[in-house]
Amino acid sequence: MFWQFLSWYLVIQLITLAALPLTLRLFVNLPDRGYAFTKSLGILGVGFILWLGYSYGLLRNETGGAWLALLGLAAVSYGVGYRKLRAEGRQALPSLRYIGGVELIFLVAFVAWAIVRAYDPAVNHTEEPMDLMFMNSIWTSPTYPPHDAWLGGYAISYYYLGYWLLTTLGRLAGQPPEIAYTVGQASWYGLLWLGCFGMGYNLLAQRYRTRLAAADGLTQAVVQSRAVVGGLLSAVLVAVVGNLQALLEWLNANGVNISGLARWLDVNNFPANAPQTELWYISTDWWWWRPSRVISDHWLNGDHMEVIDEFPIFSYVLGDNHPHVMAMPFVLLVIALAYNLFLSYTRGVPPVAPEGEEDDGRNALLRSPRALGNLVRSLLPLGWGGAIILVVATGSLIFFNTWDFPPYWLLLVITIAILFWRKLGQLALSSPAVRWGQSAVAGILFAVALLLAILLLYLPYFLTAQSQASGIVPNLFNPTRLPQFFLMFGFALCSVPALVGIGWSGLRAERADSTIAEALTIPEPLRRLTIIAACVYGLPLFWLVLSVILANTPRGQVLLHISMPLPEDVTSYTPIVLQRWSAHFWTFLVLGALVTLLTWLVWQLIDRLYGQPETAADAGQEATLFVALLALIALLLVYAPEFVYLRDNFGTRMNTVFKFYYQAWLLFGLSTAYVAVVALVERPQLPNNLRLGTMSLAALSLVVALSGIIFPLAAVYSKTNGFSASPTFDATAYLTDSAAAELAAAAWVRANTAPDAVVLEGKGASYWSNYNRISTMTGRQTLLGWDGHEAQWRGQAFGIMAQGRADALAKIYHNTSPEEIARLLAAWSIDYVYVGPTERDQYGVTGETERALATAADLAFDQANVRIYQRRR
Predict the structure, then answer these.
(1) Fewer CB within 10 Å, N- or C-terminus of the chain?
(2) pLDDT tens-digit readout, 287-341
């Protein structure tokens, strides 16, 4: 175990060294030069080079190919950055104390979660077998595209970049997928800590840059300590704490009467099915599952409808290496790239108009493509090389977890629009109204260009990807209850108003004693606030009203994918919609108000910071503006599912809430940490009542957030059963006792069959680990695995792909004719037939059936109740 851990750690450190020059050249605008993101950038770079080379037949999907990819990254990194960094000398690096602190944070988080995983390594529940199957499928696929072991003959149709990176590191470290699964997850937890710390640190260090230069009482030590506290707090709020349901579980378990509060919250099965044990860790049962299901929707007949509201530490306790978990460190990498771009200063940028030609701004709009290209090229430290890195990192989010791409694509688009606005203001070429229009066009052009570049760079992935998504559906029947939303995001409901207060303090330069009421008498800000409120509330309401009208027509139901049947005594959807929304409209109102205020604040800050050519942007307010953008995107993510969701195989908003809330947790965590440090340590310059309110809300948000610390403490102890098992990193070691013969059969298959062999097993059953064990543990293809999940990954195309497979399985395992078995094996290109305990129970395999199999094929493996037959050629 020590060597398994050490080899993985050393490989990551080697990748860090390889990527360091590139990182330091790329993140020149960040206070730490991006050091906290070096590991994520390096891992993505190695994995991307190997995948791209593998896709076009230039690199092999094996250990040698992985090392060549690492050498390629090192060559690019040192070729791009070494000479420049050598010229800069020691100034190119952050302080040795900072470097040591970052490395210590990664190591401690990595070790801590490696210990947790060592006492709970078994890949035997929920969707863990699916994750291991994808890793083994990638591991054993010699040619592109990697095959899907649960649908023989077809490629993986899922966002699999996270699995690809785990297997790449596994090849470099000499660790097979069953070890890479557990050790890799622990290292990802370390990367998550680093990314959160890096963003928190850089936001606060940037805030105090100008104040430090102005020598207004701040020292380097004070700035450093505040930034470090903000970084650590960011990591804790994102990667450690859970939601408030865990606290309620603990109170209930220890005999505190919360029945009235529980009835008001109305969380499904709580406290009816919650244990009362008087134990600090609550129980060894899966009590910790319920905090990921606090949002309760209902079908039209009143039955409970499951909605997922996971948060990062829940995912790590659960142990699934799912795309949303694998993507998170690289989401933080893209946020850091956006912040680095946001802090670019555009002195020396080629002007919008050609040299010698006057331009009053009216014609600049027509030249936005060229101006945009000049701007982007000048902003990126590596020019077009930096643009390629931006495309690789941003496009990887589609490949990691497609749901994560839209928010950060939007963040980059807004960043470019702001930079374009700033540059036009510096050149004094046009009026504010024209500048806004030109900046909007620049953002749109950049958005399209980025999408096209991603499509080109990741084309091999897009050629094999399928989707179950089939349209946008209005959320007519299930507005979120505000108490349940507070259980999930109570800390954000407190921190966002405090962030508005912090931003407001930066808008009060004209009169130090001005109040919000006085400021809103100014026509322009009030007009903006009115316009924003009208859009934030008006557009969703118009959409909902229109949807209700269409929902009561047959054609409208088809158009909007509304499939919920009406109760027998109801003839229209309208009274149901009115009843549900009139009962639970508060979340919509509260979130709409916060979106309105934050959008107005962003607009005002942009105007304030970059409204005039001579304006000297305050670094503190620039940091606040970027944090406000992060919080605004988070609000949009939780506001959207109130009135719309993506239609999938489940037919509900479950996945939309799940994936949007997950990203909102990250963004709210980062913004809350910033707010807490600024409001409680710096104490913004506001009138006494506003200052007190801002500080109180910031403190309350911190208290609410840290109340969730009980979740990881109790859940980890419960999930590991008090750390009572024998530790191991082997995800399949749980089979050594109860299913030793199946484990031996998997080892035989790995050693004696070709990587592209088809080893027949019984049809899978989703979430059951005793099905499809051979394909899961070896990556060898079977005819049909977890068909429910295959349908989710492939959508409508799955029916055609799987046609006839279930029938063929039943005939092979339940046939007494050797000739018919031989014919079916040849028709489906099946190389081996596996007969284990699950197949015997599933198909009622009898002695006569096995004799027919033995006549049609050769017995190749026999141990206990497990046999493998090889088809005769």
Answers:
(1) C
(2) 999 999 999 999 988 889 999 999 999 999 999 999 999 999 999 999 999 999 9
